[in-house]
Amino acid sequence: MSKNDSGFSTFGRSSFQIEKHLQHNMSNINPSRLFNASCMALTVTSMTFAIRAGMLTPLGQEFNLTDTELGWIAGMAFFGFPVATTIGGFFVDQFGMKRLMWVAFASHLLGLVLTIFAGGFWTLFLSTFLVGFANGMVEAVCNPLVASMYTKNKTAMLNKFHVWFPGGIVIGALLSTGMKSIGMGWQLQVATILIPTLVYGWMFWGQVFPRTERVDTGVTTAEMFKAVVSPLFLFMAVCMFFTANTELSTNQWIDKLLGNAGANALLILALVNGIMAVGRYFGEPIIHRLSPSGVLLMSGILSLLGVYLLRTTEGPALYAAAVIFALGVCYFWPTMLGFVNEYIPKSGALGLSLMGGVGMFGNWAYQTFFIGPKLDTEKARLTLEGVAADRVELMAGQSVLSSINMLPIFLVLAFGALWFYMRDENKTT
Predict the structure, then answer these.
(1) pTM of the prediction?
(2) What CATH superfamily classification does 28-421 receive?
(3) 414 φ, ψ to 5°?
(4) Cβ contacts of 34 within 8 Å, gap of 6 or more
(5) Which of 146, 79, 157 has its CA nearest to residue 362?
(6) Is pLDDT above 70 for 420?
(7) Is the pLDDT of residue 298 over 50?
(8) Please, which pLDDT band fits residue 17 given cuts at 50, 70 and 90?
(9) Confidence class of residue 25 from pLDDT cuts 50, 70 and 90?
């Protein structure tokens, strides 16, 4: 007789027994409070993202940092994320979601405090890594937590949970813009993130967490590892690199890429993420009507058009371009996770964590080794060519956006093939 990772027998268990065990597992759990606490934790992760996007320029000025050095600092948030999701994905079944949630909370507190008191490149490098690690651990815990509590409506509930990534970016971007307008520095902006951090810690305090869905349904570790090396999972992981960079690399560098394009870059960031939040919250009918693969194909087409418009327009027209871009990237992240959890269910929490890790690792690599250095190179080239100083930043940013525009071209082709393959909705791994 075999046992799963929680020590419960899995041999010969009927679907009725599994369902009864799931109901027993949920009897002492408050799904509403856990879901709301998860949303607050995700809001913290996205506020760090938004406020950091507005900090890059003043950080460069205050500490005399190049765009390449800023790329390394910003990239650490995206490197810490996959480190955490990889660790969390492997150990969440064994250690439990509750313990890892407190690791996320402690890392957020330490990383934010170190950022506030940073004195230069290396302290910013370390503190940003810790914040990124905390963000990744939130995803490593909360994605399987939501999937475990809402087994019959995973993709829709993951979209509602991920409302609070763009929602938090809106809060952070508007907060940063308002605080800047009255002369408050980046340290005070970062300090405001401590408030929702303490709130989500309080909301999780004393709560009972469920076991992960994989453990509760008796899927073995061997089956899980087989699922995450299946061709469909590996295909989706490759696509995750492109979807994550289309969305997050553009948003994270928005001030640098569009700061001289004749529109308020942080307001564009708020507009994009406000639309994303609304779209995710009310997205359930769209997901059911088009199917996850259809939603991904639609998103690829709109994001291709959106990035093109961002790099070719200036002034107030950028706000219209931002709307198209937002509609394109709106469903990428949660629908990728929902697709994997629905159609490759045996991948479990590890599958969700690896998908998030691939996306953020791709962001780290792209921002560190491409965006930052390319901005420095382009600005140096344009200056040597005698381009007016007020146009150098803009043209360098447009050059980077031109390269980013290649990413959704791949996605349209890939998701078109996926939609064709997934016409039979019963395919699972």
Answers:
(1) 0.76
(2) MFS general substrate transporter like domains (1.20.1250.20)
(3) -65, -45
(4) 145, 149, 204, 207, 209
(5) 79
(6) yes
(7) yes
(8) very low
(9) low
Contact 293, 240 (CB under 8 A): no
Q: Bridge-partner residues for 3, per DSSP?
A: 9
Residues facing residue 9 across a β-bridge: 3
CB-CB contact of 38 with 161 (8 Å):
yes
Question: CA 337, 339, 340: angle at the middle one, nearest 5?
Answer: 65
The CA distance from 316 to 264, in Å, is 9
Reduced 3-state DSSP string for 254-323: HHHHHCCCCCCHHHHHHHHHHHHHHHHHCCHHHHHHHHHHHHHHHHHHHHHHHHHHHHHCCCCHHHHHHH
Structure tokens belonging to residue 181: 């307008």
Look up residue 145 and give its amino acid: L
> Domain boundaries in the chain?
28-421
Give residue 18's pLDDT band: very low, low, confident or very high (50, 70, 90). very low
Containing H/E element for 246?
none
Is residue 66 left, alpha or beta, with left meaning phi > 0 and alpha meaning psi from -120 to 50?
beta
Task: Give CA angle at 142 (70, 268), nearest 5°.
Answer: 45
